[in-house]
Write a structure and sequence with these properties.
By secondary structure, this protein is mainly alpha-helical. 75% of the residues lie in helices and 0% in strands. α6 runs parallel beside α8 and α8 packs antiparallel against α9. The longest helix has 14 residues.
């Protein structure tokens, strides 16, 4: 099991910090309480968590839909002097998106910019997902424009997230325009975008 895996890892020369981080990754998505216990074990063993360890903890909170704890762990990471990266911010934004908290997702994005961390397409897609869940088409368009202005190329996930709030409003013309734009960019439609397109027709 997991104990044998860690024992073998140590025997092969893996460090204690690496072992705790691997264990955190094993448990991600199962229970944020379990990850918190392992973070406490790391500290008790005088092992300083790094950005990977903290990100695994934040991922766990995001996957169980707990944005408050995700934000708390992210803040604890920064308070500990650990430099956040795009993945750690993305995990917090995704946690906010899952709970439909667009305002907090935007705040985290602003913090990311202030910290000098460059957003990638995953971060922008998470923010677009938050816009979609909140049904905020204006904010979604603004985020998409900011993504392009920053030189980040949207992928099909970003297009599908942008299309969803328009689809819920029955704006099939805008969804079709996005589909044409996406196909012109050489991207293939996936099931999520197709769902948005069908929803737009049904809601018109």
């Amino acid at each position: 099991g997991q104990t044998y895996f860690l024992t073998s890892f140590w025997a092969s020369g893996g460090g204690v910090g690496q072992s705790f981080t691997l264990e955190l990754r094993v448990f991600v998505g199962r229970s944020s309480n379990r990850e918190e216990k392992w973070m406490e074990k790391m500290q008790a063993a005088h092992v300083e968590p790094n950005v990977v360890s903290f990100s695994a903890m934040i991922d766990a909170c995001a996957k169980v839909g707990d944005p408050i704890r995700a934000q708390r762990w992210h803040q604890l990471m920064m308070d500990a002097g650990v430099q956040p990266n795009a993945h750690s911010f993305s995990a917090v934004i995704n946690a906010c998106a899952k709970s439909g908290n667009l305002g907090t997702a935007v705040q985290q994005f602003d913090k990311m910019e202030k910290a000098g961390v460059a957003a990638d397409v995953v971060v922008y897609s998470g923010l677009l997902d938050a816009c979609a869940k909140a049904g905020d088409v204006d904010r979604a368009k603004e985020v998409f424009q900011r993504m392009r202005a920053a030189g980040v190329t949207p992928n099909v996930v970003a297009y599908a997230s942008l299309a969803r709030p328009f689809a819920h409003k029955g704006d099939w013309q805008e969804v079709e325009r996005l589909a044409d734009d996406m196909l012109s960019a050489g991207l293939k439609m996936n099931e999520y975008f197709l769902y948005a397109q069908l929803l737009a027709y049904a809601s018109a």
